[in-house]
Amino acid sequence: MPLAPLFVPGSRPERFAKADASGADAIILDLEDAVGPNDKDSAREAVAARADALASPVIVRVNAAGTPWHAADIDALRSLGAVSVMLPKAERPEDIANIARSFGRDVAVIALVESATGLANLTDILATPAVVGIAFGSLDFALDLGCAHDRLALLGARTEIVWRSRAANRAAPLDGITADLSSPEITEDDARHAVKMGFGGKMAIHPKQIEPIGRTFRPGEDEVSWARAIVEATFSSGAVRVNGEMVDRPVIERARQILRRSAPA
């Protein structure tokens, strides 16, 4: 799973190269919400023609199962190379299984959970072999519930997505976008909340969000120094003291996680 994947409308192929050079660790070519109904066919053609030329890992957000464009999207992607599929409005494991069957080969699917039904079926979705991880479509989720799009209202959903992903031995999930582009501090604050919740990354909708997301999800120098001191000073899972701090196995494992997150991709 990427750390800071960047959405790019599939209907704007002139932006593909710029996104590729943006520093994002993956590009999400969007055929769904960012593309109007009259542009679906041309967007699909542009993605099919240009996705393989991009240096960055490519994820294609197809249109949801049951829409008039879904089958054509999947059919167009089968001829591409190592492209991953993001399924919006993911609610039924059989829709994901159908994607895998249509490809006829291994394909990585990121299930975008955007509804109460998707959350209720999360265990079954995560058990579907093609699913590599979950992304949280927080804006659509709040719309589905009729709740505020704020941290308190979405706390339960975020928590469940994180712990169910871990229980299914899947990658840590991706948090939803920050729609407010007025300040990088807003994106960074949202990313910091996602880190605390246990998410592994956060989706971006503008290149200027990539740096604050990446900086927040990667451990800082102080955190890395602390982790390195813990790991270097401990040689067993028993409890020891490091710089006056009592350290036992969970703390040691936490330090190792931090060092893994700080390693270059």
Describe the protein's architecture and organization.
The chain has 265 residues and is an alpha/beta fold. The chain has two domains: 6-217, TIM Barrel (Alpha-Beta Barrel); 221-262, no CATH class. It has helices spanning 16-20, 40-50, 70-77, 93-103, 116-120, 122-126, 138-145, 151-167, 184-197, 210-217, 221-233, 249-262, and strands at 6-9, 27-30, 58-61, 84-87, 109-113, 131-136, 174-175, 201-202, 240-242, 245-247. The strands form three sheets. The chain has a six-stranded parallel beta sheet. It is globular, with a radius of gyration of 19 Å.
Please provide a brief summary of the model.
The protein contains 12 helices and 10 strands. With 265 residues, the chain is an alpha/beta fold.
Low-confidence stretches: none
Structural class: alpha/beta
Please indicate the count of domains. Answer: 2
From the alpha carbons, calculate the radius of gyration and give it in angstroms. Answer: 19 Å
Order of helical and strand elements = EHEHEHEHEHHEHHEHEHHEEH
The CATH architecture of the largest domain can be given as Alpha-Beta Barrel
How many distinct helices? 12
Strand content: 5-15%
* CATH fold annotation of the largest domain: TIM Barrel
Q: What are the defining features of this structure?
A:
265 residues; alpha/beta; 2 domains; six-stranded parallel sheet; two-stranded parallel sheet; 12 helices
Helices and strands, with pairings:
Blueprint: E1 6-9, H1 16-20, E2 27-30, H2 40-50, E3 58-61, H3 70-77, E4 84-87, H4 93-103, E5 109-113, H5 116-120, H6 122-126, E6 131-136, H7 138-145, H8 151-167, E7 174-175, H9 184-197, E8 201-202, H10 210-217, H11 221-233, E9 240-242, E10 245-247, H12 249-262
Parallel strand pairs: 1-2, 2-3, 3-4, 4-5, 5-6, 7-8
Antiparallel strand pairs: 9-10
Helix pairs in contact: 2-3, 9-10, 11-12
